[in-house]
Specification:
The complex is a heterodimer of chains A (115) and B (209). Chain A has 115 residues and is mainly α. Helix content of chain A is 70%, strand content 0%. Chain A has helices at residues 2-5, 10-30, 34-56, 70-102. Chain A is elongated. The termini of chain A are far apart. In chain B, α1 (6-27) runs antiparallel to α2 and α2 (31-51) runs antiparallel to α3. Chain B is extended. At the A-B interface, α1, α2, α3 and α4 of A face α1, α2, α3, α5 and α6 of B.
């Protein structure tokens, strides 16, 4: 099988990143549990991160001369990881606060600000 | 018959685990199972980072994401996993609409990912990565201090000044983390005026469901 004998290219990483991203988006829009929505966001961020890291590697391209500096991709991936941790902390605090006040984690019940 | 490319094999293994676990997060109804699937997906993505030559980012993915964020989510699951919220059903119409949107998005992304020839991969099977390319921690640390050691040989002085490292984003993100931690601690504090009402509501829901 050529998939096992050929070297891996940027396209393979992009396909995996696209699947993670789409799965995260579907997770975000279909889950009713607020923590499930949070997990969808984590999947989306990971799919994007995978693309940043893959684009930073010149060995994955047919023409390595067209690659950009590798450090930018890695640095942005690191910042995304740290920001995801911060975002998860705040989102979880909001979910717990909502749970304390409403005894529910159903996102459909958070409709008091409706105009 | 070409010899087997082990880099590709391990990539396919990690990619299969990541995609299967991501689909498991979507398909699973139980929130505890979703957390376990997410653990596998994030671990497999860390493996993909290692295979892409990003050893420091992969290690940070394991330490911060799998070791930190996922523990946070597991605590959230444990603190809110009462019987009515353990598994919540989604309406069929919402499933159809969500899958339609996600499928269209996936089609667009795959179409653009497969459309560029330069991204199809290296022409020769010979591994191009050198041993010194694989140590990224020290250059990344210098980059956060404001020195781009990977671009010291840039001939144009004007472009060299534009690549002045990541000291300012690093400082901003540090302060941001501090603010976020204080805000999260303030939001999630446990003594609240509605505490008694909460217990009544929870017990009502448990008795009803």
């Amino acid at each position: 099988m050529s998939l096992f004998t050929q070297p891996i290219g940027l396209t393979h990483y992009l396909v995996v990143g696209a699947i993670l991203f789409a799965a995260g988006v579907v997770c975000m829009v279909t889950k009713r549990n607020a923590i499930g929505v949070l997990m969808g966001i984590e999947l989306v961020l990971n799919g994007a991160n995978l693309n940043f890291v893959a684009f930073a590697n010149p060995a994955l391209r047919a023409d390595p001369g067209r690659a950009v500096a590798w450090m930018d991709g890695h640095m942005i991936a690191l910042f995304v990881i740290v920001l995801a941790a911060a975002e998860a902390a705040v989102a979880l605090a909001i979910v717990l606060s909502f749970y304390h006040n409403h005894a529910s984690v159903d996102v459909d019940e958070a409709d008091e600000l409706k105009g | 018959m070409n010899p087997i490319n082990w880099h590709s094999c391990f990539f396919l293994l990690a990619a299969a685990v990541a995609c299967a676990a991501a689909l498991g997060v979507v398909a699973s109804k139980n929130v505890v199972r979703m957390a376990v699937f997410l653990l596998h997906a994030l671990g497999a993505v860390a493996g993909l980072f290692f295979l892409a030559g990003a050893d420091f980012v992969g290690a940070m993915q394991l330490m911060i994401y799998v070791g930190g964020t996922l523990v946070l989510i597991a605590f959230g699951v444990m603190l809110t996993a009462r019987r009515p919220f353990l598994s919540m059903d989604t309406k069929l119409a919402q499933w159809i609409a969500g899958t339609l949107v996600g499928g269209c998005l996936l089609a667009v992304l795959l179409r653009s990912a497969l459309s560029v020839d330069d991204w199809a991969g290296p022409v020769s099977a010979a591994p191009r990565a050198q041993a010194e390319d694989l140590a990224t921690a020290a250059p990344l640390g210098m980059g956060m201090l404001g020195v781009r050691v990977d671009r010291l040989d840039e001939p144009e002085a004007a472009r060299r000044e534009g690549m002045s490292g990541y000291l300012l984003p690093f400082e901003i993100i540090s302060v941001h983390l501090l603010v976020v931690l204080i805000g999260a601690a303030y939001l999630a504090r446990s003594t609240r005026p509605g505490e008694a009402r909460l217990r009544e509501n929870v017990e009502d829901k448990i008795n009803a469901g």
